[in-house]
Amino acid sequence: MAITWRAVALTAAGIVAVVLFPATGTVLLWAVLVVVVVALDAVLAASPRQVAVSREVPSSIRMSQTARSTLTLTNLGRRRLRALVRDAWPPSSGADENRHQVLVPRGEGRRVSTVLAPTRRGDAHADRVTIRTVGPLGVAGRQASLTVPGRLRVLPEFASRKHLPSRLARLRELDGRAAVQVRGPGTEFDSLREYVIGDDVRSIDWRATARRADVVVRTWRPERDRRVLIVLDTSRTSAVRVQDAPRIDASIEAALLLAALATRAGDRVELIVYDRTVRGRVAGQSGPRVMPAFADVLSLAEPQLIEADWPGVVAQVRQRLSQRALVVLLSALDPAAVEHGLLGVVNQLTERHQVVLASVADPEVDDLRTGRQDAAAMFDAAAAERVGLERAAVAARLRQRGVEVLDALPDDLAPQLADRYLALKAAGRL
Amino acid sequence: MSVYAGPAEAVVGDGTTGRSRAASRWRRWRLPLGILGLLCLVALLAALPQPVTSTVPLAPDNPLPAGARAAAQILGEQGVDVHYVRRITDVERLAGPGTTVLLVGDQLIDTEHTDVLRETGADLVLVNASWAVSELTESLGYGNGSGGVETRTAECDDPDAVAAGTITASGSVLAFGSDAVVCFPAPGTSSSTGGAYAVTNVDDQRVAVLADTEPLTNERLADEGNAALVLRTLGRHEVLVWYIPSADDQDPLESGGPGITDVVPPLVSLIGLQLLLVAAAAALWRGRRLGRIVTEQMPVVVRAGETTRGRGRLYRRSGSFGHAAAALRAGATARSCARLGLPRSAPPQVVIDALARASGRSPGQIEALLYGPPPTDDHGLAQLARDLDHLESEVHRS
User: Fold this and answer.
1) What's the Cα-to-Cα distance from B75 to each of A49, A220, B69, B174, B239, rounded to whole Å?
2) pTM more than 0.90
3) Which of B19, B20, B264, B296 is the mutation pick for testing A, counting most A CBs within 10 A?
4) Is B375 part of any domain?
């Protein structure tokens, strides 16, 4: 049961009646009249429960994209359906225009679609569909809220994919290069080809040259089929807001770019989302199936306000990896957290694997460090200085244990991690 | 628009029927409705007519020993119309020639009230009202009351007093004129020194005065001849106005002015009523929500700089100039060393020499700046920070 503005207008029209016949009875009579008209209109309105509603919504979209949630309304009742339909979604789904006026003749169907522009990662579950029918007079109607299931998975934006073409170009440069540019244990023999002017004479394969009439040089390519394990830490340090986004968002961008790059480079990429338990995992995927799996798992990664269990991480890594691999820890270079957690167990990782710790730095600390406005700013600057020194100290201790430490601003983390990966690959340290 | 058959997975209805909706509505509303009903019941009980008994002394509906219900009930049974009033306006309305007005107590009235009593032309019975007696008649007045309650005999020729014979009373009313009759003097005295009961006539208005309330009370009415005196005095006419002044008794001259409802034309209040209905309808219109509010769990987000700021505040509150200066110096040194290619673990003398060469300052200056005594106040800290900034910029320029 619901009334419209017309019911209010009808009540207001009673003022004219009161002016013409000034008596208390007029007011009462008019009130009774309004109630009767409203009740009659509500009874004559089509039933909102005699409508078949189905929803179509894409299963997943990227965060910056928009999707459409389309409702199909079929009138099963005997009356013409005049209704206002609301397709309710959580606020972060960005369903601003979610009210639709529909007119469905008996036995027919109509479609209404709501544009969704989500602003948060993760699963958005549709709330109820509310149908408010209006009677023939448009004064009152009936309302019902139906549960029509719908789920939209909002994948991470992957804004860092703009860095992918340049990194892929670098990867191709590594590929098929003559030994002069890339030399060392990290590259493996690829093929033989004819010498062209400019090739390093040291790469001439004399034995092959002897078998043939031409001078032949060896070419090399970067190692392939290496394993990369990305560990995304969702403990309390990932909840910290840096600039306008939580730290975990920058980590996710970095993970996606690295996964895309490593997959193209022919490496096998795995992912563990971990704080004290495994929150998500991608393993055993290859080729084009890697990125969707990554996006799917990372879309649901949310920071938890608990301390990370680093021995648990080590156990997970050991369980997953039997051979040497690149282990990328997307965590925070938080002195206290690292000293009590990672520093104690990182040796067990570095003795078998190449470990990279990628951390999101906070530009606010830099701003504080250079602040000189007043006495309070001086003390803040001193505190920021101390924090910076502690971070540097803990980074140095990690480096001593063989960990590559990367501390970059949110926007720079993904490309820097990709560069570090390419550098390690070029140096053959994977 | 095209026509769609309902797809297989379509949802029809919300799984409720009219009966189940009514049942759930009843379940949801029964507690509020119950509470509302209870409140209404309480309000109804509170709004019921006042209980037929009161505790006002000498009130005709007071059954307590100090009340006067017995006298009022006997008068009622004898055909006297007893009107119990608390306001002078009611007295004005009810009383007139051929009626009796009983005034009990005069602490809450003034001359305007006595004027009204006089103008009604009714017979007056004044009980316990010395000031009113002196206002209403010049031939009677209160004397110095004699002791306690005692049995007195009439000793006069007023028929009511003679009929009563003896009463139990105290107090004394004096007669100043010859037209007044004083009865029931204290034992051993004569009527000229005052009695408990007096009667006089003022311009055809019979004024009876009872010095004491005792004969009227439920407790004493049956004693001696109290009942006879009281019933005869009060039952002279068919109508008895039993007036006990109250604190909110309005001044008779000031009441009756036009109220706000008399000034405003009735149409305005009717339109106001209608507008109230319009407002109620608008509230219903806007208040009905199109489906419930959708809630969402907000993500956990903590600001990164908070810990650093907190630390700075901690330094400041504890006045740790030494710690703050050490941090600033260490930071500047670390950056300068990185710039000059010195290792982090370089000894102080090496650092001082390198910085002196790079900045062109004397080693003593550098040493004082980097390893000197810590500042002791805000100003010193600010000076140190500025000096370190200068040194750093010089090193970076080199």
Assistant:
1) 74, 132, 10, 29, 10
2) no
3) B296
4) yes
